[in-house]
Amino acid sequence: MTTVSGIDARGMQHCETTALGVLLRHQGLDLSEPMLFGLGSGLSFIYWDGKNLDFPFLGGRIKPFDLTRNLATRLDLELLVQETTSPRRAWENVTASIDAGRPVGLQLDSYYLDYFGSKVHFGGHVVAMYGYDHRDALLVDTDQQGGAVSTSLTSLAQARAARGPMAAKHRSFTLTVPGSLPSPQEQIVPAITACADAFLNPPIANLGHRGIEKAGKLVRTWLQRTDAPQRDLPQAALLMEKAGTGGALFRNLYRDFLAECTQVLDSSHLRTGHGLYAEAAALWTEVAALITKAGESGDSQCLVRAGTILGDLSRVEREAMQALSRLGE
Hints:
Cathepsin B, Chain A; 2 domains; seven-stranded antiparallel beta sheet; two-stranded antiparallel ribbon; alpha+beta
């Protein structure tokens, strides 16, 4: 077994921040998961009901891998990304890094991984890899998926070669921490204001605070949207709470990021934003519970209530981001 030494194989709550944590800790940079998520301006919202979807999807973060790119830019990290249509070249890219003593990040479809508990196609899943032999690969995934895990090379190849929404072409990546790292504290304000500006000024009505408002109207129709509400509604709620979001559709992570920021920045705008996101996080968990109950019971009033709360959430999060956008003033 060829392995990278000194790996801190700590699983966290979200896949991309888990992988980032592994790669950065190996070079001596240990940031909390909320800080990784926040410095990457990771929070967002999308109401997605595409033609290829059986049921609407509520997303709470920016596109897969944008968080990694944002974090690298914020902290002046050297991000080396390799993509290829060749499975052979893709494997050589990974083994070259591990043979050189560096863990590598992979974007793949979690459906094919041997250890993965939920068999749902998701091409935006990210793991860190730190070892391999002729049969298996050693990976670090989220805590709920087992943290330090292994999967067969066959399953890994399938996961990396998968195509579909959010998939990448055998994407692998490494990060290099510069000798003189900019202070993460100095990057807090630009990371928060960039996130706020994107949230407040979405290009389409499905995104940001406008997307939450739209979801509030459309969620009321979800019992009519499916022939299997007892399956689809609880599944949608599960994705909001348990599918690597840290709970409350990533709002718990962003709330905790803002709380951490208040320890280093004295700002009334920051404290306002934190208080409002604490409120929002609790409301998102309530929405998920109501969607689950509606699916299990068929009670449409649960969805009416969920829609009303989503309308409130659009306002709460808009006010939070308006306060946070003033940090740069």
